[in-house]
Amino acid sequence: MTLKFLTAKPIWVLAFAMGLMSGLQAQGLRLGQRGPAIGALPPALEQLETRQADFIVAVVNSEPITNQEVVREMQRVQQMMMQQRQPMPSPAELAKAVLDKLINERAQLQLARDTGLKVDDPSVDQAEQSVARQNQLSVADLRRRVVMDGMEVKSFREQLRAQILLTRLREREVEPRVRVSDLEVDQYLQDQQSQASDPATVQLNLAQVLVAVPEGASAAAVEALQKRAQQVLARAKAGQDFAQLAREASDAPDRANGGQMGMRPGDRYPTLFWEAVKGLKAGEVSSVLRSGAGFHVLKVLDKRSAGLPPMSVTQQRARHILLVPSATLSEAAARDLLFDYRRRIEAGQASFASLARDNSQDGSAPQGGDLGWANPGQFVPEFETVLSSLTPGQISDPLISRFGVHLIQLMERRQNQLEPREQREMVRNLLREKKLDESFVTWAKDVRDRAYVELREPPL
Asked: What is the CATH classification number for the domain harbouring 325?
C-alpha cells in the first residue's frame, strides 16, 4: 500500500496533533487554567438538573440520549465559548444545537459499529499523548487534570475513542465521493487571475534598496546617485543576496532588516511601488524607480493572491516504514515492532533504509522508504503534523494513521518556489477541501435521515 498524498483536511477531520481533536476541544477537552473546569449552567438548566433525576430526551434507533448528557455537553461548549470570548446563545438555542449534535454523532457511531469499524487501544493511547502534548503536560498530569475537571479517565478515553471512530468513518464514507477535475482547477485559476490587478486582493512582501536624494541636490549629484542605484540593480539581477545589498547600500531605515517592508496588501504600499511590481513574480526585481525620497530598487520576496496558495513553500523530505495491521499483526504489535526498529537504528545496529526495504508495506520500500520532497498538504494530516514537529534526522514515535502504523524520519527541510504544476496541485487540494466540507454536510444529513429519532418531553 502506497501512502496517499491526500489534500488538506476538511472541517470534520478533528484536528489535534494527529488531526483528530478539534471536535474534542469543542467538547471542552482542551484543558484551561486551574480553577473551575466548566462555566456556570444557565439558571433554567441548573434548576432542571437539581430539581429532578436524569431522564431520556431522545432515542436514536435503540440508544437513548439523556438530559445529563446534554447538560454536560452544554457545559463544555459554554466553557469553550467563554475561553474564546464568543457570544453566548440563549439556553434554548444552545440546548437544541447540542442535542442535534449528539443525535448526529450517535447515528454516525452506530453506523461505524454496524459496518465493522473499531478503534484499538494504541490509537486511543496516541490520541491521549497528543492531547497531553497540546497542553504541555505528561499523560499522568493530563489524567490528573481530567479528574480535577470532574471527568473519569475511562470516560475521557472513551470520548477519544468515539472521536477517532467518527473520523475514520467520515474518511471512509466521504472522501471517496470527492473528485476535482482539471476543468475546475482551470476555472478557479482563471477567476483568481482576473482579480490579480486589484491591489487589495494581493499580498506582497517587498524589500527595497533606497538611494536617497538630498533636497536641493544638483543635477550632477542626482545623476551620480541614479548611477549608484543602477549599479545596485545590476548586482541584484546578477544574483547577489538582496538583503546584503540593502544592508550595504540602502539609505532607508529598514536596511538593518535586509530592506524588508513586510507582508501586506498591495494597496497598502505606495502606488508607485504597486505599479512597478504588479507584473513581477516572487524573486524578481523591479527597474529603478524615482520618488520624492530618491531612487528605489524593489525585490518581490513573496506574492500571494487571496485565493491562491503561496508561490514559496516549506518542503519536507521524509522516509517511513509502514506496517499494516492484520489478523496476524495487531496495532499494538506493529507499534512495538516499530519501537524496536527505532531502538536498533539509534543504536547503530541497523539503518532506516535497510529496515524500510525489508519490512515496509508501502510502495516506497524499494527506495528505503524515501517519500521525496513534499509540499504542505500532500500527506494525511496526522502524518504531516508529526513530520512538521521533527528536526532533520529525528525519528518519530510510531504513528497510527488510516493506512497503518508508521515510523517516520525527517531527512531534510527547505524553502522552495512552486512550479506551475505544483501550484495547480495545491489549488486542487483547496478545492477538494471545500468539496469535502460540502459533501460531509450532505452525508451527515443522510445518516441522520436514515436513523430512527424520537424526541421526548421532560417528565412533569
From this structure: 3.10.50.40
- Cβ neighbors of 244 (< 8 A, separation 6 or more) are 258
pTM: 0.58
Cell of 438: 460540502
H or E stretch covering 65: strand 63-66
Task: Report the distance separating Cα 278 and Cα 286, nearest Å.
Answer: 10
Nearest to 33 by CA among 135, 128, 152, 129: 135
Give dist(CA 455, CA 102) in Å, integer: 12
Burial of 357 (0-12, 13-18, 19+ CB in 10 A): middle
Reduced to 3 DSSP states, what percent helix, strand and coil does the chain have, rounded to the nearest 5? 50, 15, 35
pLDDT digits (tens, 9 = 90+) for 204-250: 899 999 999 999 999 999 999 999 999 999 999 999 999 999 999 99
| Domain assignment present for 183 | no
Q: Is residue 448 part of a domain?
A: no
